[in-house]
Write a structure and sequence with these properties.
Helices cover about 30% and strands about 35% of the residues. It has 4 helices and 8 strands; from the N terminus they run βαβαβββαβββα. Helix 1 (about 10-25) crosses helix 2. The relative contact order is 0.20.
């Protein structure tokens, strides 16, 4: 099986952040929750673009390197005191298992909050689709933040 890989570079990222911020703007989030690690760069950029100061993160581990785990492991807590609308941000919604694990947990813990999700890429067969997304992923995405900062011996 041949896996095609698409390199997602910084210039494309800056354009996409502006586009995704425009899509998310009507939701008017008062907090952004980054899904670590993949969603952290995007969440920070969106927080800046949308002027949202309440930026937090939670770890959702569904991969070990290139290998997908059997289940999603959630780690960490977020403090949404005073929040009414929270935007969950990840780089890609692949299987949808991360959102399928994260959304019910967050909604159970914070029933008064409206949660929506945003991602740069979404695979069409994902269990849950994000509310806001820009691109359909058909190949493996090699994000600049995953490759450009690796130690030379890891390349």
């Amino acid at each position: 099986m041949i896996v095609l890989m698409i390199y997602y570079d910084y210039p494309r990222f800056t354009t996409d952040v502006r586009l995704l911020a425009q899509l998310c703007e009507p939701f008017r989030p008062d907090a952004i929750l980054a899904v670590a690690r993949g969603g952290m760069s995007l969440a920070h950029a969106l927080a800046m673009a949308m002027d949202v100061r309440n930026l937090q993160s939670i770890r959702a581990e569904s991969y070990d390197g290139d290998c997908r785990r059997d289940s999603v492991c959630l780690r960490g807590n977020a403090d949404f005191a005073g929040s009414r609308r929270v935007l969950i941000v990840d780089d890609i919604v692949d299987t949808g298992e991360t959102l399928a694990a994260l959304l019910p947990a967050l909604r159970s813990e914070h029933p008064h909050i409206d949660f929506k999700a945003a991602a740069l890429f979404t695979k069409p067969g994902a269990l849950i689709q994000p509310d806001f997304s820009l691109h359909e992923a058909t190949d493996w995405i090699d994000f600049f933040w995953e490759r450009d900062f690796l130690k030379p011996d890891l390349l």
